[in-house]
Amino acid sequence: MSKKLVIKVTAGADSAERCSQAFTVAAVAVASGVEVSLWLTGESAWFALPGRAAAFELPHSAPLVDLLDAVRAGGRITLCTQCAARRDITEKDVLEGVRIAGAQVFVQEAMADGTQALVY
């Protein structure tokens, strides 16, 4: 049975520590060989756009852009459909490899055998 981790991050710059924790856990899991699906919802939706993660700063934490790149390289990143719509973000706006999908896809991923889900 393969290991899979689904992480939903709702925080952005509005709650920097919670946001950084989610991205850190996702990047460490990818580096550990875990299949990772990172969902960007709420204020974290902005990190689906080019340049946004590079502007994020939190003392004593890894650069968010590096964590995001690690997850993009070895996992899957999904931007919530409704969160994207509320921010006028479309598929042509997002980073390469980021998909836009809704709650049905999240539930399918979170309920799959061998999957653990975390919400930040």
UniProtKB/TrEMBL annotation:
* UniProt-listed Pfam families: DsrE
Q: Look up the domain of life of the source.
A: Bacteria
Cross-referenced Gene3D superfamilies:
DsrEFH-like
The family database entries (InterPro entries) matched by this protein are listed as: DsrEFH-like, Sulphur_relay_DsrE/F-like
**Name of the protein in its database record:** Sulfur reduction protein DsrE
